[in-house]
Amino acid sequence: MSSTEAPPAAVPRSVFPVAPDARYFEDYHVGDVYLFGPVDVTQEEVIEFARRYDPQSFHVDPAAARQSMFGGLIASGWHTAALMMRVLVDNFVSTVAGLGSPGVDQLRWLAPVRPGDRLRMRVAVTEARRSQSKRDRGIVRSRVEVLNQADVVVMSVEAVSLMRCRKPGPV
Amino acid sequence: MSSTEAPPAAVPRSVFPVAPDARYFEDYHVGDVYLFGPVDVTQEEVIEFARRYDPQSFHVDPAAARQSMFGGLIASGWHTAALMMRVLVDNFVSTVAGLGSPGVDQLRWLAPVRPGDRLRMRVAVTEARRSQSKRDRGIVRSRVEVLNQADVVVMSVEAVSLMRCRKPGPV
User: Residue A137: beta bridge partners?
Assistant: First the structure.
């Protein structure tokens, strides 16, 4: 292409190219972008989750929520994180190579999530490197964004996963 | 006391000194340390949460979990975070001054949480400052650690809350 031509827009994939039970460290590449979902947010589930884990009035009581700064019921941020995790487990995580996660960074709740919202999860692999101490595994970092039906990013987080390699490398 | 005497160990408080509906920004002070709980982790709840939000085999299937690197069923890290949130809502959060949270940093899953564990949450206020742009509110940062019955820190996180002030200050 000529130098004045714009590069093609990266179209996120919606399906991981390797089956969950054949997915190893080597299948995650920096620059890969996925868009998974949708998942629908229901009022019933918002209230049920919050009653158990985050019973603040604007998460559990529609009338009180209308009077709050949010103007209506919103999902607990931890509920949104849990919905994200489910989508990642269903679409992105390996069932054979996962070695857990040491944690996440910069979890941000950027906009309210409301009953009736339809969420999608955009996952961009930002780092994929072999462990320097253990030759059987690698570290995959991803930036995950949760988008609503208006393409507003309602949540973002930097996630880290440890994963077995298909072929152990040199240390 | 003499100069050779050790300072008294800081004893965390287990009850917030101001009622939830009278609690404002001014009631959170840097250096305050609380220890809340306990909360018991049951196998039933571990599996129920994970079936819905994090159905990896070592969270939902006791037999598969025994064969995993974890040697038995462990709670989803998001479940541990949700249990922490419930304890914070019950013990630390204001019901009148809360303006939500922009997010958390450095969420770390440091050790497995297993059915039968009894968790407590240690909360240390690390920053409390008035907003520079909005005189009616302040920002409270806390380091939260989740401890098990052996006093092992199983999770930690840096939390941020926005809170109304009892008395608006100068901008």
Answer: A164
Name the residue range of residue B59's domain: 20-164
Is the residue at B13 inside a domain? no
Q: Tell me whether residues B82 and A52 touch, CB distance under 8 A.
A: yes
Nearest CA in chain A to B87: A53
Radius of gyration of chain B (CA): 19
> CA neighbours within 13 Å on the CB side: how many for A48?
7
The distance of B6 to chain A (nearest Cα, Å) reads 36
Domain-located, residue B116: yes
**CATH classification of the domain holding A68:** 3.10.129.10
Residue B2 located in a structural domain: no
Does residue A91 sit at the B interface (CB-CB below 8 Å)?
A: no
At B2, is the pLDDT very low, low, confident or very high (cuts 50, 70, 90)? very low
Q: What is the pTM of this model?
A: 0.93
Which residues of chain A have a CB within 8 Å of the CB of B69?
A: 99-100
pLDDT of residue B1: 42
Amino acid sitting at position A159: A
Reported ipTM exceeds the 0.90 cut: yes
pLDDT (tens digit, 9 = 90+) per residue, A134-153? 999 999 999 999 999 999 99
Indicate the residue of B78, B95, B101 with minimum beta-carbon distance to A82. Answer: B78
Residue B30 lies in a domain: yes
Chain A partners of B53 at a C-beta cutoff of 8 Å? 82-83, 85-86
CB–CB contacts below 8 A, A to B = 82
How many folded domains does chain B comprise? 1
Section B14-26 average pLDDT: 95
Element (H, E) at B57: helix B57-60
Rounded Cα gap, residues A37 and B96, in angstroms? 36
Task: Give dist(CA A76, CA A78) in Å, integer.
Answer: 5
How long a stretch of residues is chain A?
A: 171
* Structure token digits, residue B61: 């299937």
